[in-house]
Amino acid sequence: MEAIKSMPYGMSNFADVMRQNCYYVDKTMYLSMLEDQPHYLIFIRPRRFGKSLFLDMLRSYYDLSQKDDFQKLFGDLWIGKHPTPLQGKYQMLYLDFSKIGGGVDELSRNFDAYSAVQLNSFLDRYQAYYSDEFIVGFRSAGKALDKLHMLDAEARRLGYPLYLIIDEYDNFTNVVLNEQGNEIYHAITHASGFYRDAFKNYKGMFDRIFMTGVSPVTLDDLTSGFNIGWNISTNPLFNGMLGFSEEDVRAMMRYYQEAGQLEGDVEAMIQEMKPWYDNYCFAEESLKCDPKMFNCDMVLYYLRNRVQSGESPKQMIDPNTKTDYSKMKRLIQLDRLDGNRKGVLRKITEEGKILTNLYLSFSADQLTKPEIFPSLLFYYGMLTIVGVRGDRVILGIPNNNVRKQYYEYLLEDFQTGDNLNLNSLKDLFDGMAFDGDWHSALDFIACAYKNNSSVRSSIEGERNIQGFFTAYLSINAYYLTMPEVELNHGFCDMFLMPDLQRYSEIEHSYILELKYLPKDKFDAQSASQWNVAVEQIHGYAKGEKVRQLCSGTRLHCIVMQFCGWELVRMEEV
């Protein structure tokens, strides 16, 4: 009887995944498609999308030193039955730039030292192909660049094609950009900067180059000196190359179910995961014809929890992604969020989407531009393609996992103004979920809104109020806070959907309708505005979708009316 495959959660070594009998979602069919592309490729994807494992699979396939392991590693996969003529033909150099760090004075030295170590490791792997004389000379060379030139000349003379893989090509430059500033970043990526020089040397030395990263920023700054060629990040052919499709997820769950490791309804579990991990689309052309992609690391996190405990994880967001979140937060706040970019963030958080041009590349100098900002968020996985309008794309928040990050950005911004006691608020949320005491919690937030100085620096209006309430309601663990959700042919301001999967004891759910009038119009228009709001919210509550989402809880329809910064009227209607 065949042993049950283990889950490759956190694994990035392809050979280990296969030799240790781990479950592998086959992506090898993309290898032949990549071979049909230009020889120098760049592929951008968010963190936690399986880039490192894919690169190591690619490395194992083309590696001359692993040629004899082909059947063992790839025999059961698509490429094992459809090998290409290039299988096992290359000597592979693998560089992971996330391993390079240090202060600004050390960067050049650390880059050279890391590259030298990797080149020495390369020669260890392929020493049987080179003469003893060459090996001695290579090892005696101190600088990585000297080693690289020696390797280029000798491999070319002997007829050995070289393949360069670079993982996280933009990692340490993004760190430099964030921590050291644009001036230092510019120095290493322009003119005679060491990083730019390195890329100029790579071109021409290697028969093929494949690079991955999380943003195209560094790429754009390097291309004037390194015309590397081909960014396939938004090519529809490769929309599904990383991440899991729904069918991938279903097949994996059925495997563990049939193996007796997973209990429960597979389709119900997929429906539970989709709002949290799914809905990524990286190419306009893929919107109508290709499946949306799941974040693969999140799926493995969920599934591992299900197999080990028999239950869904208490937190649908993997705690191990907190590091990713903090990195992203630093990068997004490169300019400490000038007003325009902060406005972009608020618009996305409140509306869930933005109409924009999608820029395929941009320089560091352009990062502070609000029109560039949505594209940066797209590459980080904070937005995804949800539609097209004319020559522009509609970028939307892909799922609840990402939505909660936006809420946290807003919350931190509000908390820097007037610090609200979040523990007290969470106590009130208990009463809201279990006792139906909504008044205390909502009044608490409304008072905070009135008194918050950072709010007062913004423009008054419904969006402003909605953003504030959304941010604070998002820390309520019992509900999924869903602004602008479509209910019964209209869009309610806010729907608090009970998370009954984790908290079955919740007895109450809520629709909130937030209305605003400036002080000079309140007396004349407040009555008619209130009547309209009551009619709207009753219309939302009648919908079949609402009854399904409430799942037997008591639904409260709450209308809140603001005059300027102040809550004037709040009633259940």
How is this structure best described in words?
- The protein is built from 25 helices and 17 strands.
- It is of the alpha/beta class and 573 residues long.
- It has 4 domains: 14-238, Rossmann fold, CATH 3.40.50; 244-314, no CATH class; 320-396, no CATH class; 418-572, no CATH class.
- The strands form 5 sheets. The chain has a 5-stranded parallel beta sheet with strand order 2-3-4-1-5.
- It is elongated, with a radius of gyration of 27 Å.
- The mean pLDDT is 86.
What is the tally of beta strands? 17
The backbone outline, from C-alpha atoms, is: elongated
Q: How many DSSP H or I helices?
A: 25
Strand content: 5-15%
| Total individual domains | 4
Widest sheet, order of strands? 2-3-4-1-5
Computed CA radius of gyration, to the nearest angstrom: 27 Å
Q: How far is the N terminus from the C terminus?
A: 63 Å
- Output mean pLDDT: 86
Low-pLDDT ranges:
none
* Class from helix and strand fractions: alpha/beta
Topology overview:
Blueprint: H1 14-19, H2 29-35, E1 40-44, H3 51-62, H4 70-74, H5 78-81, E2 91-96, H6 107-126, H7 132-140, H8 144-158, E3 162-167, H9 171-179, H10 182-189, H11 194-202, E4 208-213, H12 217-222, E5 230-231, E6 244-245, H13 246-258, H14 266-277, E7 293-294, H15 296-309, H16 322-332, H17 339-351, E8 353-356, H18 373-379, E9 384-389, E10 392-396, H19 400-417, H20 422-434, H21 438-451, H22 453-456, H23 462-473, E11 479-483, E12 486-487, E13 490-491, E14 494-498, E15 508-517, H24 519-541, H25 544-550, E16 554-563, E17 566-572
Parallel strand pairs: 1-4, 1-5, 2-3, 3-4, 15-16
Antiparallel strand pairs: 6-7, 8-10, 9-10, 11-14, 12-13, 14-15, 16-17
